[in-house]
Design brief:
62% of the residues lie in helices and 10% in strands. The protein is of the alpha+beta class. The strands form two sheets. The protein has a four-stranded antiparallel β-sheet. The chain has a four-stranded antiparallel β-sheet with strand order 2-7-4-5, with no helix packed on it. A hairpin with a 6-residue loop joins strand 4 and strand 5.
Length: 403
């Protein structure tokens, strides 16, 4: 019976010697020293979720993981929460500080999976070193290992501090951002009645929209200065301009067809729109507008193009971009698109409630386009195409007034 076990035991010892050679703590020791040290190790098996070391408890053992995984956990300052700071696997060691410092543990180690460990008592090690001074090298190895871990800890600490600093700057920037948005919306709300009256008196609502957009551009300038980020982070990015142009055109063409079909169906099925022409190239300019009609349409179209550019800079660049950075989690992009578009929709109330509601769905679409490349080019192209098609070809604002 003993003859059958000897080869198995020898193979296990060889395997564990190889394991110790692969560790940073014991790997520098010569083979004869490891052979002397190996009998001092005791095998320990642990199930998942078992605590091997507990922070602030007495340090008297060192562990070598033979198989399985374990998390290294650190308590928060209030002692109520544990945070995983690293994970250990086969060949890793835990608790080696106990060899040179018999004070309390600096972290908790808890198994994640079933694990097999080799455990060395500091008392057994000390007795062995007392009998064999050649093993004293292990203490120098431990000091070197601890120095390496200290450098790693310092690097992690610096990274964590830099991350905290970035988050703090982001919180400050978002605080200013929210304040500026509140100021802008409050000012717009106070002027809403006046602007609605101006829309009725001006040849086109685009004049008023452009004036409001110009006011909000000051908001954008404040957001950019507060964030301290390059303009590229606000959509002024042409790195993927070919894709942006392609997205802006290809994804927009079906919408133009849907708008045309929708108006045609309204004319055929709703008596109120029976006399409305399918194409209405002058609906964007009031019939009472003075001067040449073609010149008025061209002027309004030019103003609309400028207004679209400013709207996209404000909504996508000034609102959606910061929100992409502010929101976290799997739905962060969706939330950034939704909330920035709600503000975009509200900014159209001076035209009419119906017109504002009609701007909501396209705004979601343009927000989605922007999220693909983070470039203002694709939503600007799409917004311009849809706007010109709806306002200067189909006359959709005339339908909004009729409803």
């Amino acid at each position: 019976m003993n003859d059958e076990k000897t080869p198995v035991k020898a193979a296990m010892e060889d395997s564990r010697l190889d394991l110790l050679k692969g560790t940073r703590v014991f790997g520098c020791l010569p083979d004869d020293a490891l052979c002397k040290l190996l009998p001092c190790f005791q095998e320990q098996r642990a199930g998942p979720g078992e605590v091997l070391l507990r922070e602030n408890e007495e340090a008297d053992k060192i562990y070598v993981i033979e198989s399985g995984k374990a998390d290294v956990l650190k308590l928060s300052e209030d002692g109520r929460t544990e945070y995983a700071i690293s994970q250990l696997g086969p060949g890793d060691t835990a608790g080696e500080m106990a060899i040179v410092d018999r004070s309390t543990r600096t972290a908790t180690v808890k198994t994640v999976t079933p694990a097999c460990l080799l455990v060395l008592s500091t008392r057994d090690l000390q007795e062995l070193v007392d009998r064999d001074p050649d093993l004293m090298n292990i203490y120098f190895t431990i000091v070197r290992e601890l120095g390496l871990k200290l450098r790693q800890a310092n690097r992690l600490t610096v990274d964590a501090l830099e991350q905290d600093l970035r988050q703090e700057k982001m919180r400050v920037a978002m605080g200013h951002f929210i304040g500026l948005v509140i100021v802008g919306l409050t000012t717009y709300s106070f002027l809403l009645r006046t602007t609605a009256q101006l829309v009725q008196r001006m040849p086109s609502g685009s004049f008023v929209s452009l004036s409001i957009a110009a006011m909000f551009i000051l908001l954008f300038i404040g957001i950019v200065k507060t964030a301290g980020l390059p303009l590229k982070e606000f959509g002024f990015n042409l790195d993927q301009w070919r894709r942006s142009v392609k997205d802006g055109i290809i994804f927009t063409l079906p919408i133009l067809g849907i708008l045309l079909l929708a108006k045609w169906v309204l004319i055929l099925t709703v008596p109120l729109f029976a006399n409305e022409p399918l194409f209405n190239f002058t609906a964007a300019v009031k019939s009472t507008a003075p001067g040449n009609k073609a010149f008025s349409v061209a002027t309004v179209a030019a103003l609309y193009a400028v207004s679209v550019l400013i709207q996209e800079i404000l909504c996508r660049g000034g609102l959606q971009s910061p929100m992409h950075k502010f929101f976290a989690g799997p739905n962060s992009s969706r939330n950034a698109i939704l909330f920035s578009n709600l503000i975009f929709t509200v900014s159209h109330l001076h035209m009419s409630i119906m017109f504002a509601l009609m701007a909501f769905l396209p705004g979601l679409f343009w927000g989605w386009l922007y999220s693909r490349t983070r470039s203002l080019l694709s939503p600007f192209i799409s917004h311009s195409l849809i706007g010109f098609w709806a306002l200067f070809v189909l006359g959709i604002q005339q339908i909004a007034k009729m409803t």
